[in-house]
Amino acid sequence: xxxxxxxxxxxxxxxxxxxxxxxxxxxxxxxxxxxxxxxxxxxxxxxxxxxxxxxxxxxxxxx
Length: 63
What we know:
Layout: H1 9-25, E1 26-27, E2 32-33, H2 36-53
Antiparallel strand pairs: 1-2
Keywords: Membrane, Transmembrane, Transmembrane helix
Transmembrane segments: 37-54
């Protein structure tokens, strides 16, 4: 049985507003965050939520 990448809908709903906030916080003219600490916090949280959203499901192997 192949290990498939799981998709968690709860984390997907969390990733959407965090991604929007990260997008709003980033200044595309100077390629910096408007508020540096808040921007890095959004970025770290967004990456963590994406990793948790696409994490493999651990199921017991039944033979």
